[in-house]
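**Protein of interest**
===
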Amino acid sequence: MDPLLFVRCDQVETFGGSLAAAAEAGAEVDIWNAIDPATSRPDLASYAGVVVGGSTFNIEHADDQPFIKAVGDLSVEAVERGLPLLGLCFGAQVLVWALGGSVTKAPIREIGFEPVRPTSAAADDPVLGHYEDGAMVFQWHMDGFDLTPGSTLLATGDRIPNQAIRVGETAWATQFHAEVDADEAEYWISLASAEEDLASVWGKSPERLRDEIAEHMAAHEARGRETFRRFVDVCRSAAP
């Protein structure tokens, strides 16, 4: 199988536990540091699948951050090729936006752990079918996305309705961060809390976030590893 292409959309993106999970599933990984203007966009013909990560930028920054359009174009090309793609948070939003869908400010900001509710369509989904009702997933976003034509809603949330979709048969997008592990979450909390008061800006203090991590992260990491194992299996099955 050709390697997977992981797309870095922020300098603070470590991809959490997903790189190790992909390796455990037998996949090699290349990383495109898309946010670096000195790097050129890879040729998708060389890859078995694409994973697009999160970002502290939003779609509203597309006019002054050229990498956003580049990532959007790559995402659309993957869909058109039938190349398996998994978009995570910003990666989900850029996929929806690039396909002509709407990405706007969400009614509330989600941070930390929130429950998701799989739809009936998720029951036999090859990538996200293992999430159970009420599974606690890690969030950190202020925007949300609408469904695009040809997409299937796979999971909803109690406060933000669109949490996971499948576009066609080969692209997946999650508003939550399936890749985040305890180390990456702590890294983000430390960076963000040094710049702003998380409780007043995001609604949860660093202490509350760390309590949630202690309670829910182990199960979230296990689900994340399974997500990437399943995605690698899809990529392997789709390989010529």
Remarks:
- Residues 206-238 form the longest helix (33 residues).
- Residues 4-180+221-238 form a domain with the Rossmann fold fold (CATH 3.40.50.880).
- The radius of gyration is 16 Å.
- The mean pLDDT is 97.
